[in-house]
Design a protein that fits this description.
OB fold (Dihydrolipoamide Acetyltransferase, E2P); about 0% helix; 1 helix; mainly beta; 6-stranded antiparallel beta sheet; SH3 type barrels
Length: about 190
């Protein structure tokens, strides 16, 4: 057990019997009174976020976590198969962890980081950006270049991204995973 003042962004604690990851935390004090820690946490089981206040003398239980890099192999119904690039062992990940928001960034043969608690994957950690191939994009209208005109482009994963007119089918683009926006050519 540790004091609540030791909470840090990214740490995972056991809160109300479920693993919660600290997304933000602030240590506050008030005049003569005792300080407290206000933490925004995400339940790793339900993906719901909550804001919790801990007294500075409260204790929390940190969970042992580790990161593991796995390579995405293929999708099989509601299961996603990943391979450990070192041991070549396959791991099936359920759709509870691979949410639709994460699914649109999964590219076969690309490696992804997983957060593990007690050896069990609980979250796929996406990189800040990912390279995706454009499979469908209409031709731009000639002469329509007075402003930053954009057109929709569909990537290999089915994600639709607004791109500049000069992007053509078959090109590889860099897409930000935070908001699904075009960042440039890869």
């Amino acid at each position: 057990m540790a004091k609540a003042t030791e909470l840090r962004k990214g740490k995972v604690i056991n809160y109300n019997g479920a693993p919660h990851q600290v997304m933000e935390m602030q240590h506050r004090t008030q005049g003569r009174g005792q300080g407290w820690v206000q933490a925004t946490m995400r339940n790793l089981d339900t993906r719901a976020s909550t804001v919790v206040k801990f007294g500075s003398t409260d204790t929390v239980e940190f969970l042992m976590t580790e990161n593991q890099r796995l390579e995405f192999s293929y999708e099989d119904g509601d299961r996603y198969v990943f391979m450990d690039p070192e041991s070549f062992e396959s791991t099936e990940i359920s759709s509870d962890i691979i949410t639709p928001d994460v699914r649109k960034y999964l590219v076969p043969n690309k490696e992804y980081d997983f957060l593990l608690i007690e050896g069990k994957p609980v979250e796929l950690v996406l990189p800040a950006s990912i390279d995706l191939k454009v499979v469908e994009s209409p031709e731009g209208v000639r002469g329509d270049t007075a402003t930053n005109v954009q057109k929709p482009a569909t990537t290999e994963t089915g994600l639709t991204v607004q791109v500049p007119l000069f992007i053509k089918e078959g090109e590889v683009i860099k897409v930000g995973t935070a908001d699904g926006s075009y960042m440039g050519r890869a």
